[in-house]
Specification:
The chain has 236 residues and is an alpha+beta fold. It has one domain: q2cbj1_9rhob like domain (Jelly Rolls, Sandwich), CATH 2.60.120.620. 18% of the residues lie in helices and 33% in strands. The strands form two sheets. Strands 1, 2, 3, 4, 5, 6, 8, 9, 10, 11 and 13 form an eleven-stranded antiparallel sheet that branches. The longest helix is centred in the N-terminal third of the chain and has 15 residues. The protein binds fe (ii) ion (FE2). The site of fe (ii) ion has 3 residues, from loops.
């Protein structure tokens, strides 16, 4: 197996300059096709062969009582609902984390150049040792509306920065990230492309629409998402 770059700067194309998130009401910066094509293929192979077997199915259906239990008109409340597979990569006792370390995936995701990019785009100083998770979306997989606010976690309750790397295989048609800006849920990005990197400052309302496969490729379409979550050190 080919080795993957140790520094994120060696895995990506030139990053266009964008306004810092902290100066702007748009909480997301999206860089489409940022991962170098050869690195994309190497990462997809690594993820599918090494991490894939350790994914856990995440199934959180909608409770029918959200409708049958309603007593008043327009009192609709929809808890987070989802259908995908994921595993954490920051738990040294877990096999997936150990594999991610020995294959170089953790080295890439915790590299200085990756944190530098997250700091530059967000405008916040960030602590090292980010949280690491991978999610795999297959055909029809999605995450319903939620905001990722963690008021019970002291280090997260005032917000945190996510850098997310998207990698899809060639069988994916589209998948959207929908999100809130200025109080309206009207922003959308097609994250179902070959590769991309997003930087966002959470919490804010968002959802990921069901993955749509190309016709006839429903069984093989995959989108991998590598999530790197940073605690904000300063600047608040
Ligand atoms: Fe989220």
């Amino acid at each position: 197996m080919k080795s993957i770059p140790a520094e994120f700067s060696d895995a990506i194309e030139q990053v266009p300059s964008v306004p810092r998130i902290r100066d702007n009401s748009d909480r997301v910066r999206w860089f489409p096709e940022l991962i170098r094509p050869s690195v994309r293929l190497d990462l997809l192979r690594l993820l599918e062969s090494q991490i894939g077997p350790h994914l856990k199915d995440v199934r959180s259906p909608i409770d029918p009582a959200t409708i049958t239990g309603m007593k008043r008109n327009y009192s609709d409340l929809l808890p987070k609902s989802m259908h995908n597979s994921s595993v954490m990569l920051d738990q040294p006792r877990q096999r997936a984390t150990r594999i991610a370390r020995t294959t170089g995936l953790v080295t890439l995701l915790t590299s200085q150049s990756l944190r530098n990019l997250a700091e530059r785009v967000s405008g916040f100083g960030l602590e090292p040792s980010p949280g690491l998770q991978v999610i795999r979306y297959q055909s029809s997989d999605y995450v319903g509306t939620h905001n990722d606010h963690h008021p019970e976690e002291k280090h997260l309750r005032d917000g945190y920065v996510d850098l997310q790397i998207t990698l899809t295989n060639d069988d994916v048609e589209r998948q959207y990230l929908l999100y809130e800006r200025d109080g309206f849920f009207n922003q959308s990005v097609n994250v179902g492309i070959r590769s991309g990197v997003s930087v966002s400052v959470l919490p804010f309302w968002h959802q990921v629409t069901p993955l749509i496969a190309k016709p006839g490729r429903e069984k093989t379409a995959l989108r991998w998402l590598l999530l790197v979550s940073f605690v904000i050190r300063d600047g608040r």
